[in-house]
Amino acid sequence: MDTINPVNQTDRLKACPAAVTSLMLLLSLFVFPKISGAAEEAAQGKQLFEKRCTGCHSLDRNKEGPNLAGVYGRQAGMAPGFNYSTALKSAHFAWDEQRLEKWLTDTQSLVEDNNMDFHVPKPDERAALIHYLKSLSSPQASASNQSAR
C-alpha cells in the first residue's frame, strides 16, 4: 500500500513567506487605495473649506459662524463663545456624518429657524467637506492643534 508522505514542517515554513507576501499584495490592492482615496478626499475637503466656508467660519476662532475645529462629535450649538440661534442651542445631538450631510444639504431640514442660510448642492463636495471636518476632530488632530497654539 502506497502512503502519501505528509509535507514536512520545513516545507510548510518555506511556503509560508510566499503565501504571506501574496496575501499582503492582495490586501494592498484593496486597503492602500482606500487610504490614498481618503487622503485625497480630505485634501479636496480642505480646498472646499477654504474656498466656500472661510467667509463665515474659521478653524481657530468664531466669526459670523462658529469655529469649526473639532465640530465633528461636538454637541450642536455648543462652540465656546459663539452666540447661536435658539434653535441650535436647543438641538440635542452631536455632529456626525449623517447630521453634517443633512445640514450641508439643507440646514432647515435638520434644525428649523437656525441662522445659517447656506448649502452645498453636490454630494461629493459634501462628503469631502465632512471628511475634512472629521479629520480635524480626530484625537491626533486635536493634540496637534493644541500643541500648535
Could you give a quick summary of the protein structure above?
The chain has 149 residues and is an all-alpha fold. It has helices at residues 9-52, 86-89, 97-105, 107-110, 123-136, 139-148. It has one domain: Orthogonal Bundle (Cytochrome Bc1 Complex, Chain D, domain 2).
Topology, pairings included?
Layout: H1 9-52, H2 86-89, H3 97-105, H4 107-110, H5 123-136, H6 139-148
Write down the Rg. Answer: 24 Å
Task: Give the class-level CATH name.
Answer: Mainly Alpha
Q: What is the CATH T-level topology?
A: Cytochrome Bc1 Complex, Chain D, domain 2
Can you tell me the number of structural domains?
A: 1
End-to-end Cα distance = 80 Å
By DSSP (H or I, 4+ residues per run), the number of helices equals 6
CATH architecture: Orthogonal Bundle
Give average pLDDT, whole number: 81
* SSE-based structural type: mainly alpha
The dominant shape is elongated
Helical content (DSSP H or I, runs of 4+): 55-70%
What's the CATH H-level homologous superfamily? Cytochrome c-like domain
Biggest sheet character? none
Query: Which regions have little confidence, pLDDT < 50, spanning 5+ residues?
Result: 140-149
Task: Tell me the strand percentage band.
Answer: under 5%
- What is the H/E string? HHHHHH
